[in-house]
Design brief:
Low-confidence stretches: 1-8
Number of domains: 2
Radius of gyration: 23 Å
Number of strands: 20
Mean pLDDT: 93
C-alpha cells in the first residue's frame, strides 16, 4: 500500500491536471548570463522553471554567442524545465497552452537569402559602432545608441564589410529564435524599438525615417531597402504564429514536445522586465540589474529635447519609454563575490553563492556612506554614455581611504549604480516625475541592502515585488498568456486587474545619509573617469 506521505497533494494534483490539459503558458528568456524558462498556470503562478547558464565570448574583438551555444542552451534549458515538471508534479511536459520568447535587446543578426547567418551574432555589448551612431543621430534628429541594430548595420556599411550586400533579413536574438520556432519573421514592438525608431502614432517603424535612411545611403547602391530587411512589428496581445513541428524539435531534443502552441510576439528583456514589475502604464518605472543595468520610465509626454544618455523605446504595448541603459551592471560585483567565495572554500567547508552574497551585502550595508573613499569602476566593456569605447574594471583608493570589506563591497555596489544615476539626472532635468521605481534582478534578492542603496543613489523610493525574482522569463510567460486570452483589454489594464491585483510590494525610502554619501562618492567617480580612460589607453 502506498505511503500517504508520498501521494501528491491536492494542489500538486491540480497543477498536474493543469499541465496535462495545457492550461499553461511558457516564457523563455535568453539573458546575458542565463537562459531561463518559466511555466505558469491560469493564475500566473509559477509551476516550474528551467535554467541554463552561459557566457558571451570575446572573439576577434567582438562580444558574441555562437549559434550552437544558442540552440544547445535552449535545449538544455527546456530539458531542465521538463525535469522540474516531473519532479514537482509527476507528469511529462508534452505541450503548453501558449509560448513566448524574449532575449537581450539590440545587436546584429543579418541573414542571407538562404536564411544562413552571414556573420557571428554581435551583441548589444559591442561599442564599436560609435561613428555610425553619431551619423544616424544627426540624420534622424534623435539619440541613436551604439547598441541599436541599425547602428550595427550602418557601421558594417561604413566599414565596407563584404556581407552587407548579401543581407536579406535583419533581426534581434529574440526575433531569430521566434523565427526558427514558428516560421514567422516578426518582432514585438518593444524589441523592435531597439532596432529602429518607432512612430508613436502608428506603433510601427517610422516611415519617414526609413525613407531618410534609404536616401542617405543611396550612393552606395545597396541591393536592398531597409524596410525590406526588418521584421514586421506586433504589439502585445497579438498572436505571432504557432510552434511548428520543426520548432518543437529545436526546443526539445527528446521529441516529446508537441507542436501547435500559439506564440506571442517575441520581446526584448527590457519589455519583459516592465511586465514582470507591472511598470507599463505612463508614470511607472522599473530598474533591471544584471550584466547590464537600465531604467525604463513610461512617459506621459515626449521629452523636450534629445539627450545623449537617454534612449526612447517603447513598452510591449507601444507606449513611449525613456530608457537609461548602461552596458556594465553587476558582472564585476559577481567576480568579487566569486573571489570571496573561493577564499571561504580554502578556509573551511565553504559557502554556497547565495550565502556569500548575503554576507557581502550585509557588510556593505554597514559600510561608510561614501564607501570610505574607495572608488570602483565596473567597466568590463565600454560605456558609450561616459565616452568609453572599452572598459577596464578597477578599484582605486588613496592613502587616506579606509580599506575594509564593507567599504569595498559598498563601492562595488555604488559602481553598478553610478552611470545609471548620471542618466537619471538628465530625466530629472526634463522634470519627469518618478514617484517610485520597481526593481528586478538577482541583485535585489539579498534582503534590502541593494534596494536601499539604489534608493539612495537615485533619490527615489524603490519597490521590489514577489514576482521580480522570476524576472523576464515570467514576464514573457505572462505576455504569452495575454496573447492567447483574446480579452480585448489593454496590457496595462490586464496586468493591473488580472495579474497583479494582489501583488505585495516591499518599498524602501531613500535614507538621507545614503543620499549624501552616494552624492559624495559620485563626485569622486566622475572626476576619476580620467583614470579609467588612461587605463584603456595604456593597457
Amino acid at each position: 500500500m502506498p505511503n500517504p506521505s508520498q501521494q501528491p497533494s491536492a494542489a500538486s494534483a491540480g497543477a498536474a491536471e493543469t499541465i496535462r490539459a495545457r492550461r499553461t503558458s511558457l516564457g523563455i528568456e535568453l539573458g546575458s548570463t542565463r537562459i531561463k524558462a518559466v511555466l505558469i498556470g491560469p493564475d500566473h503562478a509559477t509551476l516550474a522553471t528551467g535554467v541554463h547558464d552561459w557566457e558571451n565570448e570575446y572573439v576577434d574583438r567582438t562580444w558574441t554567442y555562437s549559434e550552437d551555444a544558442i540552440w544547445s542552451g535552449l535545449q538544455d534549458c527546456f530539458s531542465s524545465l521538463a525535469a522540474d515538471v516531473r519532479r514537482r508534479h509527476g507528469v511529462q511536459l508534452s505541450g503548453v497552452g501558449s509560448l513566448g520568447v524574449s532575449a537581450m535587446m539590440h545587436g546584429y543578426l543579418p541573414f542571407g537569402a538562404d536564411d544562413e547567418l552571414l556573420v557571428p551574432f554581435r551583441t548589444w555589448r559591442n561599442t564599436s559602432t560609435g561613428r555610425a551612431a553619431d551619423e544616424l543621430s544627426d540624420l534622424f534628429g534623435v539619440h541613436l545608441p551604439v547598441r541599436w541594430s541599425i547602428a550595427h548595420l550602418h557601421q558594417a556599411l561604413l566599414d565596407d564589410e563584404p556581407h552587407v550586400g548579401q543581407i536579406a533579413r535583419l533581426t534581434t536574438l529574440a526575433g531569430y529564435v521566434h523565427w526558427r520556432l514558428s516560421g514567422e519573421f516578426v518582432l514585438g514592438v518593444g524589441d523592435a524599438s531597439g532596432m529602429f525608431p518607432i512612430d508613436a502614432a502608428t506603433g510601427i517603424y517610422d516611415e519617414a525615417q526609413l525613407d531618410r535612411y534609404d536616401q542617405h545611403i543611396a550612393s552606395r547602391q545597396t541591393p536592398w531597402s531597409l524596410r525590406d530587411l526588418l521584421p514586421a512589428v506586433l504589439p502585445a496581445g497579438h498572436r505571432a504564429g504557432v510552434l511548428t513541428a520543426h520548432g518543437a524539435a529545436l526546443l526539445d531534443s527528446s521529441g516529446t514536445l508537441e507542436a501547435g502552441a500559439p506564440m506571442a510576439p517575441p520581446e526584448g528583456d527590457a519589455g519583459t522586465g516592465m511586465v514582470a514589475t507591472n511598470a507599463v502604464a505612463p508614470g511607472t518605472g522599473h530598474v533591471s540589474a544584471g550584466t547590464s543595468i537600465f531604467a525604463m520610465i513610461v512617459l506621459h509626454e515626449p521629452l523636450t529635447r534629445v539627450h545623449d544618455d537617454i534612449d526612447v523605446v517603447t513598452t510591449p504595448a507601444g507606449e513611449p519609454v525613456a530608457m537609461v541603459h548602461c552596458n556594465n551592471g553587476a558582472s564585476e560585483l559577481s567576480s568579487w563575490a566569486g573571489l570571496f567565495g573561493e577564499f571561504a572554500r580554502l578556509s573551511g567547508p565553504g559557502l554556497d553563492s547565495g550565502r556569500v552574497y548575503e554576507l557581502l551585502f550585509e557588510a556593505a550595508g554597514r559600510g561608510a556612506a561614501d564607501a570610505g573613499g574607495l572608488l570602483a569602476y565596473n567597466f568590463l566593456s565600454g560605456e558609450h554614455n561616459l565616452g568609453l569605447d572599452e572598459g577596464r574594471p578597477m578599484v582605486v583608493r588613496g592613502p587616506e581611504s579606509e580599506l575594509s570589506l564593507a567599504n569595498l563591497i559598498r563601492a562595488e555596489l555604488y559602481a553598478v549604480f553610478g552611470a545609471l544615476r548620471l542618466g537619471m539626472d538628465s530625466l530629472a532635468d526634463e522634470h519627469v516625475e518618478i514617484t517610485t521605481l520597481l526593481a528586478q534582478g538577482g541583485l535585489f534578492q539579498t534582503k534590502q541592502v541593494a534596494q536601499r542603496l539604489l534608493a539612495g543613489a537615485l533619490k527615489v523610493p524603490v519597490s521590489v515585488g514577489d514576482t521580480a525574482a522570476e524576472g523576464g522569463a515570467w514576464g514573457m510567460a505572462v505576455l504569452a498568456a495575454f496573447a492567447a486570452s483574446d480579452t480585448g483589454a489593454s496590457l496595462a489594464d490586464h496586468l493591473a486587474d488580472t495579474v497583479f491585483a494582489d501583488l505585495e510590494l516591499h518599498t524602501v525610502e531613500p535614507d538621507p545619509d545614503d543620499v549624501a554619501g552616494f552624492d559624495a562618492w559620485l563626485e569622486r567617480f566622475v572626476r576619476g573617469l580620467a583614470i579609467e580612460k588612461a587605463a584603456v589607453a595604456n593597457s
